[in-house]
């Protein structure tokens, strides 16, 4: 997640995301608008990433799976 109050809209994180999951707020697809609120909520409790990491080994496998949000543990 990206903390919305700390983001400076530089867009440097977008190309660094190994699974193309980062969008600027004004380019967020309509069907993903609900994630703005979820991102803000999780940014308050999840740690910041300070260096690039590889995608999880099974990221591609999970990329197309439906209903993943139901598995999110808060």
CATH architecture: 2-Layer Sandwich
Number of helices: 3
Kindly report the CATH topology: Alpha-Beta Plaits
Distance between the termini: 13 Å
Profile the largest sheet.
Answer: none
Range of strand content: under 5%
Summarize the structure.
This protein is an all-alpha fold and 74 residues long. It has helices at residues 13-16, 35-43, 59-63. Helix content is 24%, strand content 0%.
Give a structural overview.
This protein has helices spanning 13-16, 35-43, 59-63. With 74 residues, the protein is an all-alpha fold. The chain has a single domain, classed as Alpha-Beta Plaits. It is globular, with a radius of gyration of 13 Å. The model has no long low-confidence stretch (mean pLDDT 85).
Write the layout of secondary structure elements.
Elements: H1 13-16, H2 35-43, H3 59-63
């Amino acid at each position: 997640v990206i903390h919305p109050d700390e983001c400076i809209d530089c867009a440097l994180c977008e190309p660094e995301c190994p699974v193309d999951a980062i969008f600027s707020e004004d380019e967020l697809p309509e069907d993903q608008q609900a994630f703005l609120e979820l991102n803000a909520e999780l940014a308050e409790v999840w740690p910041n990433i300070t260096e690039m990491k590889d995608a999880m080994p099974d990221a591609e496998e999970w990329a197309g799976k439906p209903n993943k949000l139901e598995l999110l543990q808060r």
